[in-house]
Amino acid sequence: MAEAKPFIPVKYISGIIFSRPDILAEAEARLVDRLGAIDLRSPEFAFALTDYYEKQMGEGLSRVFLSFEELGPPERLSAVKLQTNAWEEEIRVKAGASLRIVNIDPGYLTASALFMATAKDFAHRVALRDGIYAHLELLFTRTGVRYLDWTYPDFRQEGPAEFFRMVRTSYLAQLIANRDRLG
Fold first, then answer.
1. Cα–Cα distances in Å, from 138 out to 111, 125, 155, 173?
2. Closest Cα partner for 128 from 79, 73, 67?
3. pLDDT at 42
4. What's the rounded Cα separation, in Å, for the pair 118 and 125?
5. Is the pLDDT of residue 183 over 70?
6. What CATH number labels 10-178?
7. Can you tell me the mean pLDDT for 110-127?
8. What DSSP string runs through the chain?
9. Are 81 and 29 in contact (CB under 8 A)?
């Protein structure tokens, strides 16, 4: 019988969809308070491959991705997603907006894959807890990134894919540097 072993710590990331710099700054500050210092930040990408959020958030949306220096347990993802959902509402109320004005999408990266948290169920998503699911977004191979049928369109662009490869390189270096401590 195989014994269960502790999970290897993961590299937390977050995507933020926004239209105003002050809203991005507010979301980033809250993420830093929860997940620690940002170690990598993507350029801002136009969020224009779908109009999914336009009715709520308006036109001219951008997305930025962040990764966080401190590694953490993968089982924390659902709690982080519940917190970011609450922050979205708090930021909306603080700004006096009638609809959501920011989308904060936490996830984590392992040596082999990128997972994002979602409150939407679908066949390829795994239930975590409290109505939160893990969405397997993409896989890392020796030669790059492998997209899946359900990989979000903006994650398939070269800019985000390059960012995720950079985060993975950073993560692997952290694992090597801390291998004695991590077991």
1. 11, 13, 9, 20
2. 79
3. 97
4. 9
5. no
6. 3.30.70.260
7. 94
8. -PPP-PPPPEEEEEEEEESSHHHHHHHHHHHHHHH--EEEEPPPEE--S--TTHHHH-SS-EEEEEEEEEEE-GGGHHHHHHHHHHHHHHHHHHHT-SS---EEEEEEE-SSEEEEEES---TTEEEEETTEEEEEEEEEETTEEEE-TT--GGGGSHHHHHHHHHHHHHHHHHHHHTHHHH-
9. no
Q: Which amino acid is at 125?
A: R
Residues, the chain: 183
Name residue 101's beta-bridge partners: none
Per-residue tokens: 68 = 């966080």
pLDDT digits (tens, 9 = 90+) for 49-82: 777 677 788 888 999 999 999 999 999 999 999 9
Query: Taking a C-beta distance cutoff of 8 angstroms, is the pair 30, 87 a contact?
Result: yes
For the chain, which residues make up each domain, given as ranges?
A: 10-178
